[in-house]
Fold:
Amino acid sequence: MMEMKSDAVVLHQPNELAQTVDIFSQGLVKYLDVLGLPAERVLVPVRERGVVLQNLPSVLENIPTGLRKDSLYISKFVAACGAGLFDAALNFVWDETVLSLRLKVVQFDLEYFFNSVVTDPDRRKSFNAEKDLENLDDWELIRGCHMTGILSDIGFRHLDYIRNMRNWASAAHPNQNELTGLQIVSWLETCIREVIGKEPSASAIEVKRLLENLRRNAICASDATPINASIQLLPVDLATSLLRTIFGMFADPEVAVQVKSNIRLIAAAVWKRAPDMAKQESGVKYVNYASNADIPRRDSAKEFLTFVNGLTYLPKDRLALEVSDSVASLFQAHIGWNNFHNEPAHAKNLIRYIPENGDVPESSRYEYVKTVTMCYIGNGYGESLLAYPYYQTMISRFREQEIWLVANLVADNDVSSRLQFESCQKRFRKLISDLYERVANEVVKAVLSFLMGQTEQQLPKCASTTEYRKLTSR
Structure:
């Protein structure tokens, strides 16, 4: 017998266990027959269950002993696999993963997390405590964990795929999908390696410490010098989240004077590191405060934008706010429950703000193009048919600026994660093919041509290639 680590779960008698599972299955099938219930395709074959049970010891070694004894859903996963209910097992491992992510968020920095993932100021007011994490969609949870460094890029991609499989191939939806033992144990291993048994990245821990120091200590100019140097080394996603957080803290009327003083010392460095998308978002928030007569937050937001030289990122008129709000509402409907039914009303509302010449406010353009594109290509198991004509009309109004952004969307984690699915790839390829026929600019055509030439395996990862970077470095 193979020797295992002392803290691992060891299968001392694998043959005996397989026989026990087989006897249980035969008994259950007979009982279903007695009850007059269907017995076919209820339980997966014993050999597939054996694959899971034989691989469990090495997989579970990645969970620290202290955490393993509290992993109730992992126990339910094992029980479901032994019973032959792989669809239920997938539900259980996802439940354990979600619980682990929520715990990591609480242990990390709850305010930072909410500021990063809940960008709508009105909706943000409803997210303040640990219990409010339950009101986030699973997609928002894993996206927020990715944005704050709790999840790696690879972890985010894998979990987004498993989330879609959980929604489509598990007991969460009635279906007859066949799940193999290797698939189910592989997904368990991914969730353990990327979430349950893994700590946040070093950069994320640095941000956590920085936020704690901003809230608790008095920072002087000499302290800020090395801090600002470290900020310039942060990944862009973390810099985006950090800007959202310090902007929200600074605008809070209840924040201590000392905290505001601390933020002033690092704000310019954070602003410099953050991408234009995050800066434009700050400008939109300022207009939101002004439109809602939230005078204290409006004045503090303007002060922040002034000392980081960010007033040029303010929207020029109310249209920017309306477009941004409509895009956010559509995106929320798209990732939420029953999205195929809810999307059409939001899509119809958004198209009212898009003129026939396609002139979208600069501050809203990226999120507008990204959201319309994601809605158009769908979520891996379909798209909203009633909303589809609205997306086609909005895409028909894309100008060269918007088409260029579409060509760059494969570098966006949310979009590239979708491109793991065949149906999303098919619609994305149709989109870029249609856009190619409308473009005169040779630089844009070259990028679209490159994308059309990628294989199914290459497309989700092509943004990291040298050729793509050269083509998009205009």
User: Anything to note?
Assistant: Residues 1-12 have pLDDT under 50 and may be disordered. Residues 14-196 form one domain. The first helix runs from residue 14 to 35. The CA atoms of residues 67 and 304 lie 43 Å apart.
